[in-house]
Amino acid sequence: MKPRIISDSSCDLPLNFLAKEDIDFSVVPLKIIVGDHEFIDDETINTKELIAAMKEYKEASSTACPSPEEFAAELRKSEENYVITITSGLSGTFNSARVAANMVLEENGDRKIGLFDSLATSPSMILMIMKLRDWIKAGMYDFETICEKLSEYQKTLTLLFLLQDLSNLVKSGRMSRIAGAVASALSIMPICRATTDKGEIEVVEKIRGVKKALSSMVNMVEAKVKTHEQFPVVITHCNNLSQAETLKDLLEKRFNLKEVYIFPMHGLTSYYSNDKGLIMSF
């Protein structure tokens, strides 16, 4: 039976990403509630419709994490499972997966289940999945060693957000309406990061203008370049391929990085980053 990697839908990898690797990959969807409309974050979701609905709805939207049984159904499909979830600092998804793991292990104590709180979201989860893929394919490590190595790798990752539409922050009460209006009028964009200990979002800088904001994000990669000659970078975007490609080009030209990947966001990360948002992990 093939090893199975399971993520939630905050991970923006296509379902067929590991199809040629002899590794099963499945995604357990979250739900996004905008007024009376419930969006299921699976392959059928239309992110442009989601963004439009959030802009039209005057109140705060919300999300609902998967049930333990939804995770358990995937865990029962393989004897060897690796589960990577969105940060527990923003969602109850990790706890739902943990309950599911306990349920399945009670049914069959021989199953192997590695459970990982990414303390981040999509780009960091993608990097973790890429590492898993490489270690599983290499066949050099047993399950326990891979889990140990992945836990250590997760601690090395940095996650950055560039937010360009602040309306969700205003609606959720995280930013006052006046501050949001002023920031939008002056094209002030917050660059945020996920904290390494709790996976919560904190503002690092407030930059005026897209060009300066992208340059600032590139500057934040420099410290890692001093200790690592090469490392992969993942960029995800919400309806913003052009700026994602600009960011990729800046990273490649300045640091000669060879592995910079771009993926469009699905529903959950679009919900958090909003229209034109960019998220980067390295």
Automatic annotation (TrEMBL):
Keywords: Lipid-binding. It comes from the Bacteria. InterPro entries: DegV, DegV_C, DegV_domain_contain. One of its GO terms (molecular function) is lipid binding. NCBIfam families: DegV (TIGR00762). This is DegV family EDD domain-containing protein. It comes from Acetobacterium paludosum.
